[in-house]
Every structure is written in C-alpha cells, then in structure tokens.
C-alpha cells in the first residue's frame, strides 16, 4: 500500500537525494521546508551545498508539472509540495506554537485529514519524532543506505586460537600461512596458543602473500613514542607501511590515535624522506558555545581549534629530548641544536616539513607526496570525507582519526559519520587498514574519566 512520506528539513540537508529513495510512495514536502532550505542556500559548507542541490533537484521536477498537485519521480513515486493548509494549520495544542518545526508537523497532520493514504513523518530530529508521536503521527528516523551500526563496525583486528607449534613457527620463521582463516586484507591478528592463553604473537594479514607477517616497529621508538598496548602496535605497523595508503583509527579520547599518527608521520618524512610533507588538518568544530569571530590573521583565528595538534607535537618533541636535527631538503649535517618546543614546531613549519591546516581550506587542493592526517574525522559527513580523500595526489597517505561516540555536528550521528562509512567501505581493500583502539594511555585519571563519565 502506498504511503505519504512527509519530510522534515534536516532530512534534505543531510541527503539532498532522499526524495528518490522511497520507491513508489508519495514524497511530500511542506512549503515551510522550502522556506527553511532557502535560509541555508548561501552557506559555504556542506549544509549549504546540500540546500542548493535540493533546490536544483526539485526545480528539475517542476518542469514535469505542478508541484502542488504532484509530479512523477524517477523512482516511481510522486513528489508534492504541500501548500494547501487552509487559513490556519491545525495545531493540536497551544504549546506547539508557530515555529518552523510546528508548522511542518501541522502540515503532516493536515495531510492525514485530507487523504486516505497513511502518513509517515520522516525526520532526524529526535524531539520532533517524540512530538509527532504525541499528536498521533507515525514518525521515523531517516536512515541512509550508507549508515553503519557502530556496534557492528569493523574493528580491524581479530583473535585466533592456534596450536603452540603454529605460534612457535610464526615467531621463528616470521610468517604463518593463513590457510583456513577468513581474514580481510591488512587485518591485524593476535595469535593465541590454545593451550597457554598467555602466550601470544602479533601480526598482520598480507593478502598478496596469503600470510600473516610480524608487525613492523612493534618495539621501536618513533620520535620518542613507543606502543603501550597491542592496538597501538597494530597502529604503528599500519602507519609505517607505505603500501597502506588509507588508515583509519577509531577510539575514545586518550588512546593515542593522533599522537601515534603524528609521530609516524614525522619519522616517515624527517627520517626516511618517504613523503615531502606532514599535513595535519581538523574540522573547525567547537565544543560547547562558539566563540564567534576571532581577531587576527587566518593562522591566529584557527589556532584555538588547532591547539590539540600542537599539544601532541609538543609532547612528541619533549619525548625526543627537545633536540631537533636541522631538517631540510638538502640536509648535509647531523648537527643538533637546543630549541624551545614551540620554536621546534616553528622550525618544522618553516622548513616545509609540517603544515597544520583547517579543513575549510582544503577544497580544490591537490596534495601529492604528503602524509595527510585528518583529526576528529567523526565530525565529517560522507561527502566531506570523499572530498578530502580525493584530494590525495600521487604518493600520498591518508590517516583518519576520530571517536564515533563523540560527534559534535548536529547533523551527524555515529551511524552516518564519514569516519565509520570509510571504515566499512574500505575494509576489503588492499591499500586500506583500520584499528579500533580501546585502552586509554593518556593518564590513569583520563582513562577513569572516559569510562565513568
């Protein structure tokens, strides 16, 4: 049986092509939604882009007939812009008022009275779904095809029980045939002796060889940083492997995602010269109330949002002993000079080895031969992540770090975050690897706060 699906504004702002995903049912857009879309169309972010895309799409269907009467969609259904609300929308009780949300909800109620078809209200707003249910409307969340259940997200590693002989063979020969194991490319493996659970060996599955091989850098100091648990060892192994060009790292605060990524990037660039530059970027997404427009030049404006990156850099340089080589394109001498930590960071930036950037300015750029780290990637949409990864030029490695449980964007959920989508889409690719870090190593206090609060 056909249904009338009434859309809230946030559905179209999140997915401009949502009107094509409801089969042969009727898609109804209240005129208030069109007015709200108009307010966003000038924004220079993803929300603004989606608002403009929706307007263009609806305008294309406008050529097919009268939108107020309904026009056929490519999916087999009909698109209708609901304008006939009478002199006053039917407000069930005074507290609804005349806000945009209330007018959209009232339009859905009016449609329910006007037509015999079942009406389903579609919104990503939890409170609006509650209000819709309270006034007798069936309300559902809009679930994208790309949505990923956070509980079922690919962890990137697996425990395998094997015989003690297999563990010994792996440790002695440095490899173990993966015959009989169902493993994905670059999946990290913990081999556990089935008779002695305390005897384990760590490795990673290399699909081309069909073998599990030992980790690189497992006990190695990387710019003063060493792994403290097996997930960090897995992370370092993936970060140091140039053949793995897309690495995703997920985990709660304090697990070392960004710290390890930056340390590995500095090693690859300053020590091994495998890349031309380390670029670290993050979305400008404040926690709590925004500070508004900040004074100063661009660098001064974005500094408060980039400060967590500089904190990690200072920690790494401190662990290295505050002594920096005179790094440069034509390094001839290994002479070392003492520098303050902030001066050390400035030195890396001046030599072009390090660049800390806001994601706002990355669109349209081409980034070849770079070790690119995108921090707080859980706050990015599917489209934004696609935009970033497609900036990667020849020889570039992309590392995405984030915590899917700490999303600050009001238009995103853990199931639709760009980070979780990349994890799932890339998990079977030869060039990609993922690790979910679980143990906080920042401090006992930070770990306790993360677990209890």
List strands and helices in order, with pairings.
Layout: E1 4-7, H1 9-14, E2 26-30, H2 31-40, H3 46-62, E3 71-72, E4 78-82, H4 100-114, E5 119-122, H5 126-134, E6 138-140, E7 157-162, H6 164-173, E8 176-177, E9 188-193, E10 200-206, E11 211-214, H7 230-240, E12 246-251, H8 257-271, E13 277-282, H9 298-319, E14 323-325, E15 336-338, H10 341-350, E16 354-358, E17 370-374, H11 382-389, E18 397-402, H12 418-426, E19 432-437, H13 444-452
Parallel strand pairs: 1-2, 1-5, 2-4, 5-6, 7-9, 12-18, 12-19, 13-16, 13-17, 17-18
Antiparallel strand pairs: 3-4, 8-11, 9-10, 10-11, 14-15
Question: What report would you give on this structure?
Answer:
The protein has 453 residues and is α/β, with parallel strands linked by helices. It has two domains: 4-140, Rossmann fold, CATH 3.40.50; 216-452, P-loop containing nucleotide triphosphate hydrolases (Rossmann fold, 3-Layer(aba) Sandwich), CATH 3.40.50. The chain is built from 13 helices and 19 strands. Strands 3-4-2-1-5-6 form a six-stranded mixed sheet. Strands 16-13-17-18-12-19 form a six-stranded parallel sheet, sandwiched between helices. Helix 8 crosses helix 9 and helix 11 (382-389) packs across helix 12. The longest helix is centred in the C-terminal third of the chain and has 22 residues, at 298-319.
């Amino acid at each position: 049986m056909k249904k009338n699906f009434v859309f809230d504004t946030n559905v179209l702002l999140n997915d401009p092509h949502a009107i094509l995903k409801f089969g042969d049912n009727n898609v109804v857009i209240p005129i208030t939604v069109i007015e709200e879309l108009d307010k966003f169309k000038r924004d220079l972010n993803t929300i603004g882009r989606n608002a403009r895309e929706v307007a263009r799409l609806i305008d294309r269907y406008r050529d097919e007939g009268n939108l107020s009467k309904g026009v056929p969609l490519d999916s087999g259904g009909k698109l209708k812009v609901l304008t006939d609300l009478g002199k006053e929308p039917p407000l069930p009780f005074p507290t609804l008022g005349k806000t945009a949300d209330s007018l959209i909800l009232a339009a859905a109620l009016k449609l329910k009275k006007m037509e015999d078809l079942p009406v389903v209200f579609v919104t990503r707003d939890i409170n609006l779904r509650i209000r819709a249910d309270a006034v007798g409307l069936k309300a559902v969340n809009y679930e994208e095809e790309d949505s990923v259940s956070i509980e079922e997200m690919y962890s990137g590693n697996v425990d395998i029980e094997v015989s003690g002989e297999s563990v010994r063979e792996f440790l002695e020969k440095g490899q173990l045939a993966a015959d009989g194991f169902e493993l994905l490319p670059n999946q990290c493996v913990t081999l556990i002796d089935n008779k002695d659970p305390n005897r384990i060996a760590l490795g990673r599955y290399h699909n081309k060889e069909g073998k599990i091989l030992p980790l690189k850098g497992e006990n190695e100091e990387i710019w003063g940083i060493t792994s403290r648990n097996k997930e960090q060892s897995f992370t370092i192994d993936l970060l140091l492997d140039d053949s793995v060009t897309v690495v995703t790292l997920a985990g709660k605060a304090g697990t070392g995602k960004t710290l390890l990524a930056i340390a590995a990037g500095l090693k690859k660039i300053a020590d091994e010269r495998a890349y031309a530059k380390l670029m670290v970027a993050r979305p400008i997404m404040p926690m709590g109330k925004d500070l508004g427009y900040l004074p100063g030049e661009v660098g001064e404006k974005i500094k408060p949002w980039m400060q967590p990156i500089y904190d990690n850099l200072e920690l790494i340089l401190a662990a290295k002993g505050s002594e920096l080589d005179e790094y440069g394109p034509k390094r001839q001498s290994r002479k070392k000079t003492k520098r303050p930590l902030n001066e050390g960071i400035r030195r890396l930036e001046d030599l072009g080895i390090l660049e800390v950037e806001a994601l706002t300015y990355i669109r349209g750029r081409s980034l070849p031969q770079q070790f690119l780290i995108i921090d707080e990637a859980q706050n990015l949409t599917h489209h934004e992540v696609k935009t970033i990864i497609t900036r990667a030029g020849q020889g570039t490695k992309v590392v995405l770090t984030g915590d899917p449980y700490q999303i600050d964007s009001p238009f995103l959920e853990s199931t639709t975050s760009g980070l979780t989508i990349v994890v799932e889409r890339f998990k079977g690719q030869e060039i990609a690897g993922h690790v979910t870090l679980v143990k906080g190593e920042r401090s006992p206090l930070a770990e306790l706060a993360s677990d209890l609060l």
